[in-house]
Write a structure and sequence with these properties.
disordered N terminus; about 240 residues; 3 strands; mainly alpha
Length: about 240
């Protein structure tokens, strides 16, 4: 195995100029975008976690209000550990809110909690992008581990079927993220709609604060898609260069 890894890395090195070119042109900017998005969401969360809503709703109460708005009665809301670990678990029909969101009455907490309840509403309505994302998830997990190694090993041994298999597996990561983006945007749209319709936040300033947190969070998914696309283009460019030799 070590010798195989060495040979693969040596092969990769023989294409270092092309590989590094595409890295600096595509992958590095996408990585910087991803890093900037993560910093932005953390800053927005930290800032608006200290601004408390005039309505006095906690994150848990806000999530319950969204569930009530959509007529959902079979989803529980629980507290979980961690920071920004909030999520909806469709296997158990449980919305898990982090300690900083569950009992907090901050604008950030209400926005995040309503977003997670928006995911519960998507499952209740059998939202199409959710079904697509779940359908490709098993292959996506394989592609995240095996896609790039398969492609590079196939290039080294000049075995095109293995290269194409690797590229196909890796492309499912992009398909998954393409499906994830509308899922996340729609959950935020549902959250903000309920916040406005039910006055969970009492004025435009509070509403815009929640929107800012959710918009920053959405940018992390855009950045993740950009990173995957950049890596796929780089692999395709390396493979095309190999075929021309």
């Amino acid at each position: 195995m070590l010798s195989l890894l060495y040979m693969t890395s040596s092969y990769y090195g023989s294409y270092s100029y092309g590989g590094m070119y595409w890295y600096f042109v595509l992958v590095l900017p996408a990585f910087i975008l991803s890093l900037a998005a993560q910093i932005a969401v953390k800053r927005a969360y930290s800032s608006l976690s200290a601004v408390y809503s005039k309505s006095g709703y906690s994150g848990a109460q806000a999530a319950q209000a969204v569930l009530h708005f959509y007529g959902i009665t079979d989803v529980r809301i629980e507290k979980t550990s961690g920071r920004l670990s909030d999520h909806f678990d469709p296997r158990t029909n449980v919305i898990r809110l982090s300690e900083g969101v569950f009992g907090s009455t901050s604008i950030a907490a209400i926005g995040i909690a309503c977003h997670e309840a928006g995911h519960a509403a998507q499952y209740a309505e059998n939202y199409l992008p959710i079904r697509i994302r779940n359908a490709v998830l098993p292959v996506t997990k394989i592609g995240s581990y095996a896609g790039i190694p398969f492609a590079l090993i196939g290039m080294f041994f000049n075995f095109e079927p293995l290269v194409l298999t690797g590229l196909l597996l890796y492309s499912f990561i992009m398909v998954f993220q393409l499906a994830t983006l509308p899922v996340e945007l729609n959950a935020s749209r549902r959250a903000l709609n309920v916040i406005r319709e039910t006055a969970l936040l009492r004025n435009e300033e509070e509403y815009n604060g929640a929107k800012k947190v959710l918009t920053c969070a959405a940018m992390t998914y855009v950045a993740a898609l950009a990173v995957s696309l950049a890596n796929l283009i780089r692999l395709l460019a390396m493979f095309s260069g190999r075929r021309r030799r």
